[in-house]
Design brief:
By secondary structure, the protein is of the alpha/beta class. The chain folds into 2 domains: about 230 residues, no CATH class; about 140 residues, no CATH class. Helix content is about 65%, strand content about 5%. The chain has 20 helices and 5 strands. Strands 1-2-5-3-4 form a 5-stranded mixed sheet, sandwiched between helices. Helix 14 packs across helix 15. It is elongated, with a radius of gyration of 25 Å.
Amino acid sequence: MSAPLPEEPIQEAQVGSTQITLLGTAHVSQASADKVAELLGPDGLEVDAVAVELCGSRAQSMTDPAALARLDLFAVIRQRRVYMVAASLALGAYQQRIADQFGIEPGAEQRVAMRLAQARRLPLLLIDRELGVTLRRAAHNIGFFQRLNLFSGLLAGLLTREKVTEEEVEYLKQGDILETAFAEFAQDRASLYKPLITERDQYMAARLRQEAEQQGYRRILAVVGAGHLKGLSEQLEQDAESPESTIAALDQVPPPSRFWRLFPWALVVVILGVFAYGFTRSAALGWNMVADWVLINGGLSALGAALAAAHPLTVLGAFCAAPLTSLNPTIGAGMVAGALELWLRRPSVGDFGSLRDDVTSLRGWWRNRVSRVLLVFIFSTLGSAVGTYLAGFRIIDRLVT
């Protein structure tokens, strides 16, 4: 285990005519929040702007707790953002567990920086990359099964009521809650380190360069996690390409490989071809294969919906939808089941209001109607995915026996 870092390290960097003061903080330290208050207090630094290690969505969640009440669940389902929303909620549950253990809300120093910047009427610069982009780039860096392990481990591990371990505390003292939360469940941390840490160092350096060049600030105070201090300082010292091109490149989500784009359609062609061949052998064989497909695929998707405590009609809808949606890669069983559950059990204002507290416990995910819709989508999708392969093996086995 690494030795604890010195409290609140400070480094200076020069970008053109702009002096940038980098304050390294620990997200679970009251001392870090106090240091920010000192630097932005009456006897603190003379700065023209304050930068924080936040993206727009994370800043909004801090300053506008009611934002979740405006969440459009239909849009989340339609745009297939369920996994990102679920991961964000799980991360929030992890942060709440830390708050309960240490008596300080993670990111308290960022809140102080935002509050004092507003009080002093200083521009507030949000320099971190959007959380959703970071998560998608991280997922792209690992294989399917490692991705599944990461997501399931995130949900299971972050929702436990056990105290944060000593090793996790040391990571948090170094100031990056994303790396602490996600790297614990990755078999290969190097594949996650780049999108979670290195790329964000590059992104934040580019954002600081961009603001310095465009606005001509004389001095900026940047409040960042201590784990980013060294990398960010090195990035600012380098002769980098234009900030705009760096930001654009790091904001791109790599598309899936050509193989994975074509694979679902190829699978559909194979399944339909097997059905057709079965019917040419005999009508009875063909209908038996169809029955296997419907019962296995639909049954497992319905089982997933049932495990998520879905409405009985949602379970029935998952059973009926899965055999058909598995033959149409543009729509999934989870989209149908999630939309049905949302229609049958529309969340109340109270569900949205209590969502953050409810998702801190495993039982709360099932109790709250908002999070339960997400679970219905995820479980019915996984059930259909498993059912597609098991049913495929079953109908092929009928042909060869």
